Amino acid sequence: MFKKFFNKKKEEQPLEIKHDWASYFCRVEDKPASIRLNLALHDCAPIQNYKHRIWFSIKLLNPDENGFTTREEFPVICTIEDAIAEALEKIGAIFVGALKTNGTFDMYSYSKNVENLDEVIHGVMKNYSDYNYATDTKEDTQWDTYFNFLYPGAYEYQTILNQKVLINLHKQGDNPEIEREIDHWLYFETEKDRDTFILKSETLGYKMLSKQTMKEGDHLYQLNISKVSDANSATINANVWELISLAKENNGSYDGWGCPIAG
């Protein structure tokens, strides 16, 4: 009896997945695309044994001119997504991201195994007989699809961060049309790089607020600059992309922005 007790297999603990979902626009095969993914997986992936990448795709019935879902079709696509994600979760899969482009909606997941996958998918889609769908699996131990296809590049990632700041400003009653001083922070490898950047940024209408030398890190030379503008997303993104490009030319990295609330 005691031997059986002590030899009992240790139960496998359920995998805890953090969530930080975000969306961004890009182009896939030169077509407009929208990608939504769980950014939190970046710090823990690839997850051991979750080596099977699962792809599920449905053809939209009435895509708009950009190949995205229309307002009318959006609710049913959301319902299908929830049902597929729930069904795959029951067989141990992790839903990592989704793509809308060229009249299709694709979902990507990772799983330890793909047994009974077709049966699971059919169990959901039999309730949506109007939709054509397809599935595919492949071994992807390094999560290449997540990191090199779904995950945003530097510009797209900063757009996501910009949107989070703008949403926070909106919640606090900010009027984005009102011009105010927008602060930006950057870091550089050398003092010369920073000084060169300052001169170039001044020609673009920025002014230096402060500069400091940090005690540790690869980019020790901090810079804080500002420019008066509105806080509309188009303006913010354009200015931030401009600074990211200029920083890269001078061995620097962009580290975000902030501004006072205007109302």
TrEMBL record:
InterPro entries: DUF695 (IPR016097), RraB-like_sf (IPR036701), RraB_dom (IPR009671)
SUPFAM superfamilies named among the record's database cross-references: Hypothetical protein VC0424
Domain DUF695: 20-151
Domain Regulator of ribonuclease activity B: 161-259
N-terminal signal peptide: none
Protein name (record): DUF695 domain-containing protein
Higher taxonomy: Bacteria, Pseudomonadati, Bacteroidota, Flavobacteriia, Flavobacteriales
